[in-house]
Design a protein that fits this description.
- The complex is a heterodimer.
- Chain A is an all-alpha fold.
- Chain A has one domain.
- Chain A contains 12 helices and no strands.
- By secondary structure, chain B is an alpha/beta fold.
- Chain B folds into 2 domains: 169 residues, P-loop containing nucleotide triphosphate hydrolases (Rossmann fold, 3-Layer(aba) Sandwich), CATH 3.40.50.300; 67 residues, no CATH class.
- In chain B, the strands form 2 sheets. Chain B has a 6-stranded mixed beta sheet with strand order 6-7-8-3-9-10, with helices on both faces. In chain B, strands 2-1-4-5 form a 4-stranded antiparallel beta sheet.
- Chain B starts with a strand and ends in a 12-residue tail after the last helix.
- The chains are: A mainly alpha, B alpha/beta.
Amino acid sequence: MRHVGAIAGRELKSLFVSPVAYVVLTLFAVLAGFFFLASVLSFDSNVAQAQQFQAFDFLRELNLNDHLIAPFFQVMWIVILFLVPGITMGLFAAEKANGTQELLLTSPITIWELVIGKYLAAAVFVILLIAVLGLFAGIVFLYGEPEVAKTLSGLLGLLLVSLTYAAVGAFASSVTRNQLIAFFLALVLLLILWLLSVVADLGAAGGAVTTNSTVSQILRYLSSADRFEQMVQGLVDTRDLAYFGFMIGIFLLLAKASVESVRWR
Amino acid sequence: MIEARGISKRYGDLLAVDNVSFSAESGDVIGFLGPNGAGKTTTMRILTGFIPASDGTAQIAGHDIFEDPLAARRAVGYLPEVPPLYPEMDVVGYLRYVATLKDVPRSKRKAAVERAVERCGLEEVHRRVIGSLSRGYRQRVGLAQAIVHNPSVLILDEPTVGLDPIQVREIRALIADLTSAEQAEGARTVVLSTHILAEVEAICRRVILINAGRKVVDSPLAELTQGGKRLEDIFARATTADDAAGPREEEG
């Protein structure tokens, strides 16, 4: 595993000399700012309306975690879903297009070192994105008193979801030499992953499957949506942590097999 | 040294390399000749560990490419047909990265990179970004990449393809210089594929000619050209003899 650091370091440097990293970071910061402002304004108007109609029960219920931070995180989750493929699209596809794959596969490194090195670079970038969101959440702490644990649980949820998406993106990048195809393939996979629970709900509503049927349960298990929701609500369950670890492992395993497949042909 | 025993490569029904065996000692400079699609690139890719052979095996510097692939790869320097460069990296940064991948110990990395830069005449551009270099210089960086870890086997796949005549002359001189210097050290085996016969005459001591995946000639250059025989005629005779049965393979 001693080549992992070198591979990850080179990948990160490459990301930051290409426009991709800056485009993604700028877009992310601008969208985060916009949606944060929108969440604050919406919270403000909620308070104003509740006061105007003297809805004291609602006012008591209203809090910064559930009505400001959680909606903000939920929107940013969608933003991340669209941006992570942009970070991961080049991981393996660019090596194939450059011809540098031939250098890597004729060097005394293992394919696991390569895959983990690449993934690590994407993970560092993802952590950077979540840190930006942490700053926005920090602003709320300057002016109010949201619960720390609940906020951190939400951030952890976002981080785990993003790391899972990065693994999916790494796999998508490993099956093609074209970065654009890698981007859209990752996006399609992520949307499918996201919509699995919706599919389960629809099936149940349409009577095709009951909520407790095996199919529905499997779909629900694979979907990241419900788990993320729970973490935003402040529920950190070891089963959910295991789920994210499982998904990351599966997709890195697929990426490894895909990189290795040049040797089978 | 290289010891190839019965290497074959099948792509479905197509036999790209058919039972090729040869051995090369330290100090050998071998011209790997053959028409396009003869199986040169495939054979080299097998020797470098990029793809496995369907049959047969090879030893690189005493390490079996199947049983001890990492040690075998450590002993090989390889310049593929398209030099494996990162256009956004500078020359020194790139060579240092390759040295790390090739297991050059940390304490020796700087010296190894300096040596490769000097040997390949890259001093003037060593801080330049690779993407801004001319093709001739990129090819030099490709060569530097192949020798940075001082491998005992050097494999070069069509090192002068796509260059202009002056760059071809420069690269050829550089390879001749590298190989003759290696000769003095007596420690390296060089295999160079090409279909340019003048290149073989300028650089190589020994010729292996493969056609349709099979080895048809393996002999010292001096013996082949004895009595004023021309390499071109030998090439033409060897490659047309059984051309009808020859499979075709996409190079690159």
